[in-house]
Amino acid sequence: MKVRLKWVEDVSFLAQSGSGHSVLMDGPPEGGGKNHGPRPMEMVLMGAAGCSTYDVIHILKKGRADVRDCVVDVEAERAETEPKVFTKIHLHFTVKGKGLKTEQVERAINLSAEKYCSATIMLAKTAEVTHDFEVIEIE
């Protein structure tokens, strides 16, 4: 896996993935940026949410669950001193579908957290990573 990062100006950077996609990252105006993109540490959280959600959807579909939507809200805390690593990360999953069983969703989330999601497992080496969920039945 490869990524290339190119400095654009001030504190703006264009990140390019090996799979051919680009993301502009920027800083806040008070830090010399123009707020044209997410901060690098926000990208870390987005990656963790994406990795975990991918797993959960995959596991549920493999189990023939009729999952229709999944949203993950992530909240994190960082250390007050440098390096300002994440100290706490909480993922709240909202899973929608027809006839979804709470146990099925819980199992998928736990498998992701404990076995499959490389991003959250890696972050758990320095941060307390927790999760919870809600299941919403749709017609």
From TrEMBL:
Superkingdom per UniProt: Bacteria
Pfam families, sorted: OsmC (PF02566)
InterPro entries tied to this protein: KH_dom-like_a/b (IPR015946), OsmC/Ohr_fam (IPR003718), OsmC/Ohrsf (IPR036102)
Gene3D superfamilies, per database record: 2.20.25.10, 3.30.300.20
NCBIfam families per the UniProt record, alphabetical: PRK10738.1 (NF008009)
PANTHER family per record: PROTEIN YHFA
UniProt protein name: OsmC family protein
Source organism of the structure: Chitinilyticum piscinae
